[in-house]
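Q: Hi! First time doing this. I have a protein sequence and I read that you can turn it into a structure. Is that right? Here it is:
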Amino acid sequence: MTEASRLALQGMRDLSMLEWYVIPLLAIVLYIYTNEMRKARISGNWDAILAGLTLLGMDFFNETWNGWVFTLTERSAFWTAPGKTALRTMVGWNIEIMFMFAIAGIIYYNTLSPDKKEKILGIPNRWFWAVGYAAFAVFVECILNLGGHLVWEYPFWNRSLGGVWLIFFFGYFHFYVAVILVIGMKKTRSKIIAVSIIYLIAILMNVIAFGFLGWYY
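A: Yes, that's right. Below is the predicted 3D structure, encoded as structure tokens:
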């Protein structure tokens, strides 16, 4: 087991680690969602909320399979977050990351043009911003990695050209693809079902890992 993995396991889901700044962060996230809910009640368009939940759900799934990698290899996940946090939830996940991803989908949605056909540099605006936000997220990850806050163990998942592309596609871009697919559905019921499936898969994976296999990541 790597040193970063050992550090990431320390204080896992230990509520005594909670810091008071979590409360205002939670309030900010709730304010953003309730504000979007208020607008949705008037317009009947719940896509902003669904975009936010979709992206958070995709990150939940990503962090789950990353935890599986850690347990199966008994060495390291693809990424670990061993640094200081107000609450460590998985080896590569913490409360601060969760709050960020909870609103990242809404940020993305509010960037989009109301005209689905509008293009930027010849690219449909939804896909342009998906590429843009995913690339920005990879840039931020590289900064965090340089600072030692996000640790990459494997040679194929690092700041090399090949590694950056893997992080781009499997770390972030598919999050936005999922959002595009969900908000592109015609019926709200279908959108809700799609989002629910994302969470159901992640939850089942964790139930199997913790409840049946006795894993701890």
